[in-house]
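Example pasted here:
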Amino acid sequence: MTTVSLTSDYTLATHDTSSKMTFQDLTSGLKNLSSENTSSIHSLPVEVLSLIFNTAYISVQSNFDKDQQLALAVSQVSQHWRNIALHTPSLWSNILLRTAWNYELTEMCLFRSSLHPIYLCIFSDKEEYPSCGIELDFLQELIVPHLPRCRSIKFVSNYIRTDHSILRTLFLNSGSIFYPFLEDFYIECNVRHLQPHVERSVSPGNNAPKLRHFYLDGERLLPYTPPLKNVTTLHLANMKDILDVIRHCPLLETLWICDAYTGWVDDRDPYEHSSLRSLHIFGSDCVSKFLLYLVAPKLEDLVIPSVSFRDLTVLHSCTDVGSPRFPSLKSLALPLTVRDFSAALALAAHCFPTIETLILPYLRPRDFIEGFSQSIERTVFARLTSLAIREVDTKGEAAISELVLRRKLQGCPLRMIFVDGSSYQNSLLANLGTEVEIKEKDLWGDIWQAAGYMI
């Protein structure tokens, strides 16, 4: 399939949709066109201009960091394009405040977006604001009235003087504001000691019926959150109130926890999260305590890269082989510490006996084989049919071949091995023949990439 694009000499050309124009290509090209009165674009029919506008917008839309530059650029090309831009509220729906807030531009975009749902993104930084009072008045008068129109809200702050006051101005009344369009809510505040502290927990209402994705990074942020009743995906980092937050999410399906403080899991009674299916814990020394607290009968996917042998012993001592704690668990990502790899792998097999896919980011051949040989009376990971590994060398190939043969003799054969691209291209596992299918897919790389903004 081909689309129409603008080239540097202002003629029309076709290109494959797989090579999309960059942001710089489009904006610079369109602005140059607007300054060329002799350009042939001024003689093009309205229909052609409309086609160029639509295809250019579609071809670059996914590459934009949600801001106003596209709308500003296309409105300068020709009068017809300007009319289209001015009468298309969705083009002005990205409200971005960063690098010295532009009050006039923000006001213009809010006006031109009409009643269309907006995407609000605010970055607060020490070097950018001469007066905290000015920005707070601006937020109160111009931004707060438009909060009910937000489809997405993102607030990022690293400045101790402004972030708490801005949060109070924007979100202290979140519990009473109706958010009919809000789908994503994101607050990242790296300040550890906010004063004064507002004593208010998560709002119990249903004022955000479409809110599904929620990200909270920092302490004492709960008073500024909208109701979490309908949240299905939750990302929490650098906070102590994790249990309080997840208790307000009865529909929670996916939970990510990163850099949780020591002691964030206390001696509370176990709590059931009946809809939870995926759990990722990065950077915590309380993995076992949290898993003992959590009752999740539908949990299918577990990622615990920070777990250690010492941590797993806590869960192991409370796990009955005949009654798995997570009966539906199918996939486990387990980047264990090098020193205790084999012993911890055996503990994990005891704690999570139902898994079918094991994901390991690295492979120490000797410890790998020892881990699968720890138990004499039973097969380690008896239901295991898939193994995901990466960076396989010749020693790793030998270890995997031995494991494949061992499990075949035990009557629990492996069916699939996932490897990263470089391992697949080297064809190191070709000697396995038809015993097991080798598939190129870096499962651990996908997990790490998805968690990149958290860790």
Observations:
- Residues 1-87 form one domain.
- The chain has a mean pLDDT of 78.
- The longest helix spans residues 394-410.
- The chain has 15 helices and 18 strands.
